[in-house]
Design a protein that fits this description.
Blueprint (H helix, E strand, L loop, with lengths): L3 E4 L5 E5 L2 H10 L13 H19 L8 H7 L1
Antiparallel strand pairs: 1-2
Organism: Schleiferia thermophila
Protein name: Addiction module component
Length: 77
């Protein structure tokens, strides 16, 4: 395996680069690795989530939905 160590400006190791072909092989061997991958949301997904957030906010303002504490919201992120 040909890994490259990523270092910050002080030479401290901060990450590892794995060539995509080797990453794919690792995912075949270890199925749980797929859960670590991040997929960029599409523009449509982002817009849909924003629309839902605005709906929820309006319901909170109308007293039809209870607001959540800010800490709970931030923890979700």
């Amino acid at each position: 395996m040909k890994l490259q160590i990523i270092q910050d400006s002080k030479g401290k190791a901060t990450g590892v680069y794995i060539p995509i072909s080797e990453w794919k092989e690792l995912k075949k061997q270890y199925k749980d690795l797929e859960t670590l991958e991040y997929e960029e949301p599409t523009k449509e997904q982002i817009l849909q989530e924003l629309k839902e957030a605005v709906k929820e906010l309006k319901l909170v303002e109308q007293g039809k939905l209870k607001a959540r504490p800010a800490k709970e919201l931030l923890d979700e992120l």
